[in-house]
Amino acid sequence: MNTQPTLYLIPGTVNHMSRVVRSDTPWWRRGVVYQVYLRSFADSSGDGTGDVNGLRARLPYLRDLGVDALWINPWYRSPMADGGYDVSDYRDIDPRYGSLTDAEALIEEAHELDIKIIADLVPNHTSDQHPWFQEAREASVGDPSRDRYHFRFGRGDDGQLPPNDWTSVFGGPAWTRLPDGQWYLHLFAPEQPDLNWAKSEVRDEMESILKFWLNRGVDGFRVDVAHGLVKDQAFPDLGDDGSELLGSSRRANHPHWDRDGIHPIVRSWRAILDTYKGDRMLVAEAWVRAERLPLYLRPDEYHQSFNFDFLQSEWSAAVFTRVIRDSLSAAAEVGSTPTWVLSNHDVMRATTRYGLPANSNWRTWPMTGPANLLDADKGRNRARALALLMLGLPGSSYIYQGEELGLPEVWDIPEDALDDPVWERSGHTQRGRDGSRVPLPWDDTEPSAGFSTGSTPPWLPQPEGWSHHSAAAQAGQPDSTLELFRAALAIRRKLGTTDEQLQLIDSPPNSLAYRRGSGLSCVVNFGSEPIELPDYDEILLASGPILDSGPAVTPAGTETNNHDHAVATLSNKIGDGSRLRSRPRPTRIGPDTAVWLR
């Protein structure tokens, strides 16, 4: 069945084509997906580690938040050398998280709440504890079991040097030598040997794993390192590639990233998903050049790919305008929609990232400092504004757990508590990604802010005052980030999912404005001075101050004594308390602020 709508141009659109959405549009084209880092979400067993049943208990919270699907980071059996991305058994749940029965119950209960489940597929590598690698390690040189991975002899007189100069994403060489003299490839940690996708046995096994989870009701897969998999079998030296941790390689014909041989593999996966009912989907984690991304989104490959250009954009109206325009155009060319994301488990949280000065390197700042570069209030305000910018756009949006609480990065975790392999592999020059993975605060219950039912400390330490950010502390508080997200998702469901139209409209310098086909408009002030709003009938939602020269504007027309400004925090229900009735009419928004109008 062809579900692709007809292309047409909106009058006045700036360099981009839009689409009308029919009623049979697949859910993933417009859905809001909530990323669950299971280890840090909610602990039901009291052992300090999040688990499946903890997530099950919080499903009503996620329903009330208004999300359409959950992407769950790897929950498979794993030694946890890299937070579960080192899988030893793809067909079972790690006992720390629960059981396969628990996972099946979660899928069923989520579906009862009309929430989809996206599993995390890790196809580039396994754990070194996977039966395949255990067999290969014990086998003699030349044994067929080693063909499932990349084993090579080294260079030098007695093979004492690695086969080539490739480096691990986590730091250090990408090769580890076994006692028998051969080296094996691992683009990540040594505990994560890369699979050899030139072998049909590897392809057949991953297809079987897909079917295993599809048969249990998962609605899709987020594919880890989607730009990896295929390696140049000549294993040439790479030289200085200039790529950074999880950054897009700028080198054409890279020997281990973004190779053309990836695409036949993806087509075989897509063919499997297309045999299942219910709009099953694939979303790629592909760190590739913008001009290469459409290759992953052809009609018989991935349904979507994360928009890392959006995530990595600096605080600039011009930059975000360009990224939005280019992303919409590129997605439209291949019949897809963009997948917007501001935070995830691999990057610094947006609330902290956008509190650092322009041109700061947020990856190294936790080590190099100085700490006083961070303006936490500015970062929080900008992240709130960008949430409205993102959630108003056509396509799908991904929210990382805690983003709806405005959680900051915990960038100063004690060194002896760091868990990410990046810390050790980098020779203690990079703190890694633990700062975005600190267990969530749910309430003020000690000792873990409601994260755990027991007295065991969380697997990563929570900072002092963490409970102030908790869901319980924010619920019902009209100016909280949680209520901002709840209101935004309710409005989005009414006005942001009926079409995929977008018109970029004129706005003052250092600002960005667009209008959706439904009439929903978004204006973001990226500058340092207030800006004028365009004509509007109704203010729906604002991330920060709405300004006028008269009485401060508050919901339902209540006036305060503050004649300078008011923060408009509005009801979830459009038309029920959301119209600002105070006069004079608000005409401006302050810096680092976004507003939804119609």
Q: What can you tell me about this protein's structure?
A:
With 598 residues, this protein is of the alpha/beta class. The protein folds into 3 domains: 27-126 and 199-481, Glycosidases (TIM Barrel), CATH 3.20.20.80; 131-185, Alpha-Beta Complex (Oligo-1,6-glucosidase, domain 2); 502-597, Immunoglobulin-like (Sandwich). Helices cover 22% and strands 14% of the residues. It contains 14 helices and 24 strands. An 8-stranded parallel sheet has the order 13-12-11-7-4-3-15-14. A 5-stranded antiparallel sheet has the order 16-17-18-24-20. It has a 4-stranded antiparallel sheet with strand order 19-23-21-22, with no helix packed on it. The longest helix is centred in the middle third of the chain and has 17 residues, at 317-333. The protein is globular and about 80 Å long. The two termini are 35 Å apart. Residues 1-22 and 550-583 have low confidence and may be disordered.
Based on DSSP secondary structure assignment, what is the total number of beta strands? 24
The biggest sheet amounts to: 8 strands, parallel
The percent of residues in helical segments reads 10-25%
Tell me the distance between the termini.
35 Å
Class from helix and strand fractions: alpha/beta
Sheet with the most strands: spatial strand order: 13-12-11-7-4-3-15-14
**What count of domains describes the coordinates?**
3
CATH topology of the largest domain: TIM Barrel
Mean pLDDT: 89
Morphology: globular
Give the count of helical stretches: 14
CATH architecture of the largest domain: Alpha-Beta Barrel
CATH class of the largest domain: Alpha Beta
